[in-house]
Amino acid sequence: MPVELPPILFPLVLLAVYVFSCIKILPEYERGVIFRLGRLLPEPKGPGLVFVFWPIDRIVRISLRTIVHDVPPQDVITRDNVSVKVNAVVYFRVIDPSRAVVEVENYHYATSQLAQTTLRSVLGQVELDDLLSKRERLNAELQTILDKHTDPWGIKVSMVEVKHVDLPADMQRAMARQAEAEREKRAKIIHAEGEMLAAQNIQKAADVMSANPVSVQLRFLQTLVEISAEKNSTIVFPVPIDLLQAFLKRP
Predict the structure, then answer these.
(1) Helical (H) or strand (E) element with 209
(2) In degrees rounded to 5, what are phi and psi of residue 70?
(3) Secondary structure of the chain: what % helix, strand, coil (to 5)?
(4) How far is residue 83 from each of residues 167, 170, 244, measured CA to CA in Å?
(5) The pLDDT of residue 249
């Protein structure tokens, strides 16, 4: 004979299935923004076990982890009218999940677009030399502007880094010539300073040797010894007239 189930068993099974379907488990890095009958609950739920009573509740999961966004290359005209391509990376995270859902439609897309426009506007106000040499100041300025504009969305921009500046080929060659000229100038200055120091030392040595004429003869003989060590077949060496004065004097 077939066994008849109690009539109350079917509603209990449906209730159990409904309760299990209302259970949501959120990991440590996520929060759940709950809308009950279309109205936002005061505090986001999670992490852990969360009950979402369908169909009166709707949950939106928000990750609290830091998001690394690579800003696409932007065409920037610097203050001194040089056209360059600049890309950057933006580090940001959600600090208020409720505002990130309610205040902006898509916080990731909005932050990306804001980063692109801010990058073009800020870097367009500086000269090329500042763009290449003052990266830290520009990064700090970009981070401050982005953080100020994303704060109403519950977003915290922690860091902005300008990664690469792509210069035109003509500008690269001009900068290479400028660097070469700068190094040549420094080399000439160093060579001139060396010549000046050598002349000063020679003058001091001449003053010391002029006090005793014998020292000139000793220096002459020492120079001959140094030249003879090279084993040259022919040596042309000027003889100071002071060494011949003793032979030119009449007895």
Answers:
(1) helix 169-210
(2) -90, 110
(3) 50, 25, 25
(4) 8, 11, 74
(5) 57
Query: What's the CA angle centered on 123, arms 175 and 87, to 5 degrees?
Result: 80
Q: Six-digit token pair at 104?
A: 């902006």
**What pLDDT, in 10s, does the model give residues 51-93?**
888 889 999 999 999 999 999 988 888 888 888 889 999 999 9
Spatial CB neighbours of 155, under 8 Å, sequence gap ≥ 6: 92, 93, 94, 95, 100, 107, 111
Q: Of all residues in the chain, what percent carry a pLDDT higher than 70?
A: 80
Q: DSSP character for 240?
A: P
pLDDT tens per residue, range 6-29: 777 777 878 888 788 888 889 999
Could you identify the residue written with the tokens 């090329």? 128
**Could you tell me which residue, 179 or 28, shows the higher pLDDT?**
28
Distances (CA, A) of 246 to 70, 177, 239, 240: 88, 60, 13, 12
Tell me the residue type at 59: I
| Total Cβ atoms within 10 A of residue 62 | 21
**Which element (helix H / strand E) includes 169?**
helix 169-210
- How many Å apart are CA 37 and CA 227, to the nearest integer? 105
Q: Report all structural domains of the chain as residue ranges with CATH numbers, in order of start.
A: 9-62 (no CATH), 67-171 (3.30.479.30), 208-251 (no CATH)
| CB-CB contact of 33 with 44 (8 Å) | yes
Q: What is the mean pLDDT of the chain?
A: 83
